[in-house]
Design a protein that fits this description.
Chain A is mainly β. Chain A is built from no helices and eleven strands. In chain A, a hairpin with a 6-residue loop joins strand 5 and strand 6. In chain B, the strands form two sheets. In chain B, strands 2, 4, 5, 9, 10 and 11 form a six-stranded mixed β-sheet that branches. A five-stranded antiparallel β-sheet of chain B has the order 1-3-8-7-6, with no helix packed on it. The relative contact order of chain B is 0.35. Classes of the chains: A mainly beta (112), B mainly beta (109).
Chain lengths: 112, 109
Amino acid sequence: IAGITQAPTSQILAAGRRMTLRCTQDMRHNAMYWYRQDLGLGLRLIHYSNTAGTTGKGEVPDGYSVSRANTDDFPLTLASAVPSQTSVYFCASSDNSAGVQFFGPGTRLTVL
Amino acid sequence: GQNIDQPTEMTATEGAIVQINCTYQTSGFNGLFWYQQHAGEAPTFLSYNVLDGLEEKGRFSSFLSRSKGYSYLLLKELQMKDSASYLCAVRDSNYQLIWGAGTKLIIKP
């Protein structure tokens, strides 16, 4: 059982390029989340989905979009990457919005 | 605004006890979480408190006082593998987690 997987593990991207970070969970969790983690700051919520077919904006949604076509997958897209989006991105899932969140291994993204 | 405060860094000795404090001011309260994060890895769940008092789980315990907006994580019999960052997070009235910046714990032999 893999839990939550993320791809790629790391990526260097030119500014202005489009990029999709992938997240897949096999726990049949209803809720999924995307966070970014920057040095000296707490995890910040980008977007979330409480159930398949619905999404919501978190604390820092600008420049990012998500979709939730099914229970397992929750991709995060950067339409036109900028250097300030350089960060470590974590996907997480929980049984429901009140449950414990479990994290994927993260994607380290560098935008030059 | 919403705010979670925890010390940036702490140092302790192998075999000793350490207490990591967390104070919070959030819009609503629906539970407090502690996570452990080793360098370069994902956060992993340690404990959850929603009622006042102490929750014990092996060498780790977590305490909550909702009236004081305060929690602590107590680690006993410290081992070198406990060197990590410890993240405090509060679930607010919208059921979103608000995270502290984390406390880096350094264990010395």
